[in-house]
Amino acid sequence: MFFDPPLRGQTVLWFLSSVRSLEVWTSGLIELP
Length: 33
What we know:
There is one protein chain. With 33 residues, the protein is mainly α. It is 73% helix and 0% strand. The radius of gyration is 14 Å and the shape is rod-shaped. The protein starts with 6 loop residues before the first helix and ends with a helix. 0% of the residues are buried.
């Protein structure tokens, strides 16, 4: 486990992908009949 200043960019990318997958999961859940 190592921390560099560029790690912030990695964290932002991870956060955005998490939000995207959660959004997809939620929309799939809502679209269930």
